[in-house]
Amino acid sequence: MFYYELHSHTNAASLCSIVEPEDYIQFYIDKGFAGMVITDHFYHGNTSINRRLPWESFIDEFCEGYYRAKAEGDKHGFTVLFGFEQKFTDGNDEYIVLGISPDWLKAHPEIRDMGRVKFFDTIHKAGGFIIQAHPFRERYYISDIKLSLDYVDAIEVLNLGDEDVHSRRSYEYARNLSLPMTAGTDIHSIRNRNVVAGVGFESKISTVEELIDGIKRGRAVITPYEKLEEIKEAELDGSIDLEVFSLIDGELEPTDDYFAKNRNHS
């Protein structure tokens, strides 16, 4: 089995990370992984890149963590792919975006200030793939939970930065929507980090297109499996402290139907 980290941050572009991009490579090789995706916080997220830069310069600096990690990965036969973590101006819901290149970002400055529906539609038309990250996370800086239902392609059901009950809710959400499930460490530091999460495939992944195809086809196996089993057993009492909104027909509407059990998804 070949394992891949899908949610990582470098100190080159994410304010919250203390990891030099190159330092991830041997760390993940030692963990038995074959590759990773660099998913630094994008323009409206916790980025360390100066937002006053011209757009192309912003993208060049934003992608530095990926370029440096890839250069080191290439020396060791370790696959490093490009992604980013998208956040909007009116909430703390975040999304892992795959299948979009740095050159595409440079050519499309208009995506910077797009709302959710326009952004999702634009990314999909460009061949991108969208994973809602930690959808049921509750933290002091999060005022509400926003779920994007039919607008996303997969759900991150195991995030090692979340409590088990948050991941259990994400698992139930993905299960009831019949969406592919992914996992990630959401890693910001490798100090004292003994456990990492990701997805495994029976065949080696070399391109982001292969990664997306594997997830779409349900071939991604969540690791660590034992942790997934733990979160599936986490107590689910139905109570959520934050107000929950669902993106339905282009509008965010308050809902008590947290797991969309009553919606018709094919």
Task: Please render the helix and strand layout as text.
Blueprint: E1 2-5, H1 23-30, E2 33-38, H2 55-62, H3 64-76, E3 79-87, E4 94-98, H4 102-107, H5 116-125, E5 129-133, E6 144-147, E7 154-159, H6 164-177, E8 181-184, E9 198-201, H7 208-216, E10 221-223, H8 225-232, E11 243-248, E12 251-254
Helix pairs in contact: 1-3
What this model shows, in words?
This protein has one domain: Metal-dependent hydrolases (TIM Barrel). The chain has a nine-stranded mixed beta sheet, sandwiched between helices. A three-stranded mixed beta sheet has the order 6-11-12, with no helix packed on it. 29% of the residues lie in helices and 23% in strands. The chain has eight helices and twelve strands. It has helices at 23-30, 55-62, 64-76, 102-107, 116-125, 164-177, 208-216, 225-232; strands at residues 2-5, 33-38, 79-87, 94-98, 129-133, 144-147, 154-159, 181-184, 198-201, 221-223, 243-248, 251-254. It starts with a strand and ends in a 12-residue tail after the last strand. The chain is an alpha/beta fold and 266 residues long.
Short description:
With 266 residues, the chain is α/β, with parallel strands linked by helices. It has eight helices and twelve strands.
**CATH architecture designation:** Alpha-Beta Barrel
Taken from the alpha-carbon principal axes, the silhouette is: globular
Proportion in β-strands: 15-25%
Number of domains: 1
Low-pLDDT sequence parts:
none
Q: Encode the helix/strand succession as letters.
A: EHEHHEEHHEEEHEEHEHEE
Query: By helix and strand content, what is the structural category?
Result: alpha/beta
* CATH fold-level label: TIM Barrel
Give the averaged pLDDT, no decimals: 95
Task: For the record, give the distance between the C-alpha atoms at the N and C termini, rounded to a whole number.
Answer: 30 Å
The gyration radius over C-alpha positions equals: 17 Å
Number of strands: 12
- The oligomerization state is single chain
Which CATH top level class fits? Alpha Beta
| Largest beta sheet: strand ordering | 8-7-5-4-3-2-1-9-10
Helical residues, percent: 25-40%
The main β sheet shows up as: 9 strands, mixed
Q: For this structure, what is the CATH homologous superfamily? A: Metal-dependent hydrolases
